[in-house]
Backbone:
């Protein structure tokens, strides 16, 4: 029997305490990709019940945002390390993970981002209930073009040819450049390469 004072409170009051003690700005937890530690409340010092409820709330009600350690990769290693560190039981509570990456046109040719996406998708299969999103910033400095897209890995399905997994967040940094031939060329370049990647991810 759990005799801790917090555990003796009604569920709605415990939930209120969790909201006060375990809240993050904008319900986002930012993690450096190079770090291997987990995010876990210290409620285990109170009781088993409180720890279990607090852990579930932290992982289920926040988006975990990984900051890239190396330009051109969506920090897939940080995600894999994080899931390993918190354990399969806690990872099952995850509902949203966001990875960030920045690419220039020349970086598409070295294959690093393609390999990183494949590893990320493989890791995502360990947490099927969690939405894994890659926030990609495409920078073409010679054309003064910046495009931000969100890649939803769960939207990639076999025999589905459309680009539903690509969501354009901010088409161009400067509104005056949005309808220029340069902007359209950059978007076409990006979509063309991402279509190739989708085929790889579908086959993997």
Residues:
């Amino acid at each position: 029997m759990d005799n801790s004072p917090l555990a003796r409170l009604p569920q709605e009051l415990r939930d209120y305490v969790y909201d006060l003690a375990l809240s993050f700005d904008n319900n986002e937890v930012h993690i450096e990709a190079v770090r291997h530690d987990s995010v876990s409340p210290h409620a285990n010092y109170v009781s088993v019940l409180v720890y279990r409820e607090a852990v579930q709330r932290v992982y289920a009600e926040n988006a975990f945002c990984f900051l890239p350690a190396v330009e051109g990769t969506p920090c897939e290693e940080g995600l894999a390390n994080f899931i390993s560190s918190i354990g399969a039981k806690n990872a099952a509570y995850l509902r949203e993970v966001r990875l960030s990456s920045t690419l220039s046109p020349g970086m598409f040719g070295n294959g690093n981002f393609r390999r990183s996406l494949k590893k990320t998708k493989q890791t995502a299969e360990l947490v099927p209930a969690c939405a894994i999103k890659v926030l990609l910033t495409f920078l073409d400095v010679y054309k003064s073009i910046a495009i931000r897209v969100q890649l939803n890995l769960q939207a990639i399905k076999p025999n589905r040819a459309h680009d539903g997994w690509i969501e354009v967040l901010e088409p161009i940094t400067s509104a005056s450049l949005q309808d220029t031939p340069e902007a359209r060329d950059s978007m076409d370049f990006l979509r063309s390469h991402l279509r190739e990647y989708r085929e790889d991810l579908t086959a993997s």
